[in-house]
Write a structure and sequence with these properties.
Layout (H helix, E strand, L loop, with lengths): L3 E9 L10 H15 L3 E2 L4 E7 L2 E15 L2 H17 L7
Antiparallel strand pairs: 1-4, 2-4, 3-4
């Protein structure tokens, strides 16, 4: 029996400056994950988050996307690289 790993990504619905993230960026990310892994899931309900960097607190509205894939180093590496792509795409200091 194969061991599987779940990768979850919390994507912002607003940039750090308060502007709304264009829905196309979320759709693009969803399509990329589907193309890569053959399946992806996302929650439609908004997840509220707060985090601090230095003296500044950021409040987020987030969308969770996730995939369940066989555990292997290739998938680990993909998500490490994809995180950097998404940080740039969504103009974020950090993503989880």
């Amino acid at each position: 029996m194969k061991e599987y790993r779940r990768y979850e990504i919390l994507l912002p619905r607003r940039f750090n400056d308060g502007r709304r993230v264009p829905a196309e960026l979320l759709r693009q990310t969803f399509r990329e994950l589907e193309a890569r892994f053959g399946a992806v899931s996302a929650e439609r309900q908004i997840i509220l988050g707060a985090w601090r960097q230095g003296d500044k607190t950021y409040h987020d509205e987030l969308v969770r996307m996730f995939v369940d894939v066989p555990a292997n180093p290739e998938h680990d590496q993909f998500f490490q690289n994809f995180k950097e792509t998404l940080k740039s795409r969504f103009q974020q200091l950090e993503l989880w």
